[in-house]
Design a protein that fits this description.
single chain, mainly alpha
Length: 239
């Protein structure tokens, strides 16, 4: 007869684990001696080793009790079923890890590589996070509605950003978001905007839109898509 501590040492588990197995009905509680201590037998040690082996193999505790008394054929079938379930869980975990890896990619999870590169270029230019969010969300809408149109537009947009004059205009428009609507800089910015667009043709505006939905999505308001200063700037640009 051995104590719970000796049994735990023999089986390579903790006394807490043994008590848990008692609570789960996996290991029968032995009688206590005259001093009130549990005394375990060799059969208890054998049962505990079986429980530990099955638990270490990944068998759920809820299944172990049935497997302890199962015959060889039933045990083999049950282990095969458990193994199949584990393979499914492993596959799901791998898919989850792949999704997490994509999330670490930031914008590239939601937009095309071309758009993601464009957003990276804007970050390097010092464009505000607000404007980057607006750009990203706008491209998500456009790519969903009409991938072909979006591909043509991002190609043109990247060419425009490479133009120093347009780039300066873009950055000034970004900064103007936080100006007051009566800011004296707005009329000059409106003049520069009109002049630039008067001297440059837009391929995307001239080409037919393959999916009319894109036009509606492009004009949908987004949180932060306008400000009093931007509204005033739009009015000034229209004349």
């Amino acid at each position: 007869m051995i104590t719970i501590g000796q049994l735990a040492d023999y089986a390579g588990v903790t006394t807490k684990a043994i008590r848990h197995y008692h609570e789960r009905g996996l290991l029968a509680e032995p009688d206590r001696d005259s001093s009130g201590y549990r005394r375990y037998t060799a059969q208890d040690a054998i049962d505990l080793v079986k429980i530990r082996t099955l638990a270490d193999a990944g068998v759920p505790l809820a299944r172990i009790k049935d497997l302890l008394d199962a015959g060889a054929e039933a045990l083999t079938a049950a282990i095969a079923e458990i193994d199949h379930n584990l393979r499914d869980r492993i596959a799901q975990l791998r898919r989850t890890r792949d999704h997490l890896a994509q999330l670490r990619g930031g914008d590239r999870l939601f937009v095309s590589p071309e758009v993601a590169d464009h957003l990276d270029d804007l970050r390097e230019l010092g464009v505000s996070e607000r404007q980057l969010r607006l750009e990203r969300d706008g491209w998500i809408l456009m790519q969903t509605a009409s991938p072909e149109d979006a591909a043509a537009w991002i190609a043109e947009k990247r060419e425009l950003i490479a133009d120093p004059d347009f780039r300066a205009l873009y950055l000034d428009h970004d900064a103007a978001y936080d100006w007051l609507p009566d800011d004296p800089r707005l009329p000059a910015l409106a003049d520069r905007t009109r002049t630039w667009f008067a001297n440059h043709d837009s391929r995307s505006e001239a080409r037919p839109v393959h999916n009319p939905t894109i036009a509606r999505l492009a004009t949908m308001s987004q949180p932060g898509a306008s400000s009093p200063a931007w509204d005033r700037l739009a009015q000034l640009v229209k004349g």
